[in-house]
Amino acid sequence: MDDRTAAPRGIAALARKVKSDSFQMASLSEDLRNKALAMISDALVENKAAIFAANEADLAAGTEIGLPGPVMKRLKFDEAKLRDAAEGLAGLISLPDPLFRTLLERELDDGLLLRQITCPIGVIGVIFESRPDALIQIASLCLKSGNCAILKGGSEAMRTNKILYDLIFGAGVRAGVPEGFLALVESRADIDELLTCHESIDLLIPRGSNEFVRHIMARSSIPVMGHSDGVCHIFADKSVDAAKAVPLIRDAKTQYVAACNAVESLLVHSEAAARLLPPLYADLTACGVKLRGCPRTLDFIPAEPAEEADFDREYLDYVLSVRIVDDLDAAIAHINRHGSHHTDCILTEDDSSAERFMLLVDSAGVYRNCSTRFADGFRYGFGAEVGISTGKLHARGPVGLQGLVTYKYRLYGQGHIVGDYAEGRKSFHFKDP
Is 0.85 topped by the overall pTM? Predict the structure, then answer.
């Protein structure tokens, strides 16, 4: 155990040390940060056998205690996920530097120049579910954006997380990054202490169940960014192209059923139900999906009767709730009431319906004729993501590099004093270049 892995009752001291290093971290050049990312990628690939062995041990332990299938799928870290991680790191290196960008430049008066410049947030605490690949994404995004990170992964992935952390930490330090760029908290009991470190941690990003995220929000004064549930919807409008819709809905439900951007509820316009629901039912049931329908749905397909609570549920499983609605406005009202403001999609060939849907649905992602599974930082070209935010302040949707920076105002003067302006000897002229 290195000194960046938290010892019991040492979380506050660890957070203070990370905070101290964050100021140096904020000044690192883009070249050094990219060099560290390249060395991290090499270290992961060169040590893949050890990573896979640790993951097999986690999977065996998960099987022994009976972890659900979706959790086991998230837990698995294999050649494909390592390849995705390496590609993500390469993509991240190629992205423009989010730091030191000038967002605004204004001459307030002769010789008095104001600039708004991007800078890191500082120290970000991320508490995430049993996805080892999430550790790589979070650590690399924080490094590229000049932030330090304190990570707490799920206990199910303890062995995999530890070896990934050791490799990333070692490669970063060898590249010349401050030791405080990354720390790992291994005990669940330490989370409560982590939540009290408001002087050291600038932002918390929890990734887990609704109950867990609300627990974090209720117990900490540290700003929290993220989402709890992923109750995503697809609405099939009356002009829906059924041939296009069936494979799209299948992808949104089954491509990765345990993801927060998988569709959980399907709304169907009453005028489209007869031509969409029978072929969709045949297709989805062949893939092992169970459909739970409202009473009107049962007139078209032999689905299981749905309870009202099913339309608020994030299944993370091969289950889809189906409701028939009479018009576009009813679909929008349903989504805004029952959804989680994550990602929602309309399937329509009508431009005006699509535009109204996108204007009125209050979600971080609003789509037309494409799978909800596109709600992902990598697929948006962000390199990766630290999570998806359903809030409206600072960042929304997949949070990549731009969501991990803030800004500061730099004012350059030549002996200027406010008294000259207050007493009328000088006046502002506010010139932008």
Answer: no
Helical (H) or strand (E) element with 408: strand 405-412
Among 32, 395, 55, CA closest to 181: 32
165 vs 133, 181, 212, 231, CA distance in Å? 11, 11, 23, 31
Q: Does residue 212 share a domain with residue 112?
A: yes
pLDDT in tens, 239-287: 999 999 999 999 999 998 988 899 999 999 999 999 999 999 999 999 9
Q: Which residues contact 197 (CB under 8 A, 6 or more apart)?
A: 11, 12, 15, 16, 125, 222
DSSP 139: H
Give the number of domains in the chain.
2
**150: phi then psi, degrees, rounded to nearest 5:** -115, 120
Residue 364 lies in a domain: yes
CATH of the domain at 74: 3.40.605.10
Q: Are 387 and 226 spatial neighbours (Cβ–Cβ below 8 Å)?
A: yes
- Its domain, for residue 138, covers 11-225+399-409
Instruction: Name residue, tokens 């097999």.
Output: 56
pLDDT digit string, tens, across residues 282-339? 999 999 999 999 999 999 999 999 999 999 999 989 999 999 999 999 999 999 999 9
420 occurs within a structural domain:
no
The residue length of the chain stands at 433
Average pLDDT over residues 381-389: 79
The confidence score (pLDDT) of residue 7 equals: 42
Please say whether the beta carbons of 322 and 269 come within 8 A: no
Same domain, 213 and 307: no
